[in-house]
Design brief:
It is built from nine helices and eight strands. It is an alpha/beta fold.
C-alpha cells in the first residue's frame, strides 16, 4: 500500500456530490495519511472546514482564489481570519494570481493576493498559491512579503523554480508530470530537491495518466510519485515518504498516522 499526503484537493466540489461520503470513507483503508482541502471563497472555505471536522485525515485551508475575488466583500479578510482559527485549518489558500482566465483585473488580483499573504504572515500560517501566466508578478509579491508556503500545481520553468526555492518555499507537483508532452514539468521534477517537493491532486481536476480526462482523487498520487521517482532515479516509496514529511513540516501537522 502507498501512503499518501495530498496537499491540494477540492472534495467539496460538485463533482463528488454523488459519492463523496463513500469515497472519503474508503480512504482510511487506501493509505491516505492526509488531505488538505482548499477553499476558493467564503462558502467553499466553510465547506472545507466542515469536511475537516468529519474526517480525521482532512485538514482545511481558507482563502479567496483569484477567479473568485468578485465575491470578496469589504469584510472578507476578517471572515477569512475568523475561519482560520479553526483547529483543523492549516493554511491560507487557495490564493494567488491568474492571468490566463482573467486579465482585466490584475491590480485587484494583486491587492487581494497581497492582503491575504499579510494575513497569513500575521497568523503564522503558510500560504497555498495559485499562479497561472503570472509568474513575474507572483514572484515580485512573494519576494516583498516572504511568506512560507507552496506554489501549487507548479507550471513554471526550472529558472522560476530556483527563485521560489530561494524564498524557502515548496513546489507542488501533480498529474501534469505524467502527461504525454510534459517536458517542462519533468525538468522541474528532475531539478527539484526532494525536501522541497509536495504532492497533490487538485482534484477533481488534473488526473494523471492513466486516468486523464476522468475525475481525480487522492489515491492517484501514486502515479505522480512513480513518474517523479523515474526522472530522479529514486524509488516511488522514497518520493512518497519524503513528500509526506515535507507536508507535515510545512503545515505543522503533528497528529499523523505515519
Amino acid at each position: 500500500m502507498d501512503f499518501i499526503f495530498d496537499t491540494h484537493a477540492h472534495y467539496n466540489d460538485k463533482a463528488f456530490n454523488e459519492d463523496r461520503t463513500a469515497l472519503l470513507d474508503s480512504f482510511s483503508e487506501s493509505g491516505i495519511l492526509g488531505v488538505i482541502n482548499c477553499g476558493t471563497d467564503i462558502e467553499s472555505s466553510k465547506k472545507s472546514i466542515k469536511l475537516s471536522e468529519q474526517y480525521d485525515f482532512i485538514y482545511s485551508a481558507v482563502g479567496f482564489h483569484p477567479e473568485d475575488i468578485s465575491k470578496a466583500n469589504e469584510n472578507y479578510l476578517s471572515e477569512i481570519e475568523e475561519l482560520s482559527h479553526h483547529k483543523k485549518c492549516v493554511a491560507i489558500g487557495e490564493i494567488g494570481l491568474d492571468y490566463y482566465w482573467t486579465k482585466d483585473n490584475k491590480e485587484e488580483q494583486k491587492r487581494i493576493f497581497t492582503e491575504q499573504i499579510i494575513l497569513a504572515n500575521k497568523l503564522n500560517l503558510p500560504v497555498i498559491i495559485h499562479s497561472r501566466d503570472a509568474h513575474n508578478d507572483t514572484l515580485e509579491i512573494l519576494k516583498k512579503h516572504k511568506p512560507k508556503g507552496v506554489l501549487h500545481c507548479f507550471s513554471g520553468s526550472v529558472e522560476i523554480a530556483k527563485e521560489v526555492l530561494k524564498l524557502g518555499m515548496y513546489i507542488g507537483l501533480g498529474g501534469a508530470v505524467t502527461f504525454k508532452n510534459a517536458r517542462i514539468p519533468l525538468e522541474v521534477a528532475e531539478f527539484l530537491p526532494l525536501d522541497r517537493l509536495l504532492l497533490e491532486t487538485d482534484c477533481p481536476y488534473m488526473s494523471p495518466v492513466p486516468f486523464r480526462g476522468k475525475r481525480n482523487q487522492s489515491t492517484y498520487i501514486s502515479h505522480v510519485a512513480e513518474k517523479i521517482a523515474e526522472v530522479k532515479n529514486l524509488t516511488k516509496e522514497e518520493v512518497l515518504t519524503t513528500a509526506n514529511k515535507n507536508a507535515l513540516r510545512l503545515f505543522n501537522i503533528k497528529n499523523s498516522n505515519e
